[in-house]
């Protein structure tokens, strides 16, 4: 019985990984002697980690070489010989989704995004968005092989669309999207999906394994960029619609003018009775403010102006607390007044709390 020798070429694989890690080790040693000067115990732990990384990567690449690549190529040759070629499209979608969903680098990125954003961007949302995007483009790659569509007809419009999406997208979404494009082309995609497409192109009559089989990784790199930025636009549109509903009947602006040094007292007192916070402006400048007045009170450098956006049902309570904290009943202490607000943006946390509180009774 003929079998595969899993250890064949293992030495060469180890040597390749060692050469790849060597420049990083040399760079660390330079920083260690010149700047870091870490304790010997930490340096030894670092080298233990490097040794484990060398061993793990080498074994992984050896497994890919003797397992994933041959299996993917043979699967591709079988799929390329079927009569109903359209079946390759849903199969490509399924394989693209499962491969990306199990990609370690994609999961690491999703987890890092959730931690960095303090939970505002869920890792499950990022993971599913990237996986579905890659699945769609792997299916599109199968369409390209079946009908012989040139790669540039897909890649060029795709990147033009990505450039166009840069303008309406926020900075966070752009950074996440382009990083996702890099991690999606991990070892699972390169070894398994690419081997399958090369096998399919080899088995199909009139298709070239090089020109038709390769190019899938370029599509996989493009897919998360478009899917993440599209998701970001959808979220922004939904939040904007929610903010537009937050009208004047729900929100007012409390303006308090007090003596210098009393702004923090006003903020603390108002927050104790339900205010979300506020902004303090100092009357400092080149003298232009010394001649301006609001309701007869001069805004001079020794004054502080506190702005606070507040739900209308809390206004009376907050005003009474501000009056006590700033001693507004005394002459010359300052004043506080309420300004109607037509629309409010940037109160996403309040909107989420409102939607959550409205959903609780329905759920119960």
Question: SSE layout and pairings?
Answer:
Blueprint: H1 10-36, H2 40-80, H3 88-101, H4 104-116, H5 123-147, H6 152-166, H7 171-183, H8 187-203, H9 209-213, H10 216-244, E1 251-259, H11 263-272, E2 279-282, E3 293-294, E4 297-298, E5 303-311, H12 315-326, E6 334-340, H13 348-363
Antiparallel strand pairs: 1-5, 1-6, 2-5, 3-4
Please explain how this structure is put together:
The strands form two sheets. A four-stranded antiparallel beta sheet has the order 2-5-1-6, covered by helices on one side. Strands 3-4 form a two-stranded antiparallel sheet. By secondary structure, the protein is of the alpha+beta class. The protein has two domains: 235 residues, no CATH class; 100 residues, Alpha-Beta Plaits (2-Layer Sandwich). The radius of gyration is 31 Å and the shape is elongated. Helix 1 runs antiparallel to helix 2. It has 13 helices and six strands. Helix content is 65%, strand content 9%.
What's the short story on this structure?
This protein is α+β, with helices and mostly antiparallel strands. It is built from 13 helices and 6 strands. It has a 4-stranded antiparallel β-sheet with strand order 2-5-1-6, covered by helices on one side. It has a two-stranded antiparallel sheet with strand order 3-4.
Strand order of the largest sheet: 2-5-1-6
Shape category? elongated
Low-confidence stretches: 285-290
**What is the strand content?**
5-15%
Percent helix range:
55-70%
Chain oligomer state: single chain
Q: What does the largest sheet look like?
A: 4 strands, antiparallel
The end-to-end span amounts to 64 Å
Output the radius of gyration.
Answer: 31 Å
Number of strands: 6
- Can you give the mean pLDDT? 84
The number of helices is: 13
Order of helices and strands: HHHHHHHHHHEHEEEEHEH
**What is the number of independent domains?**
2
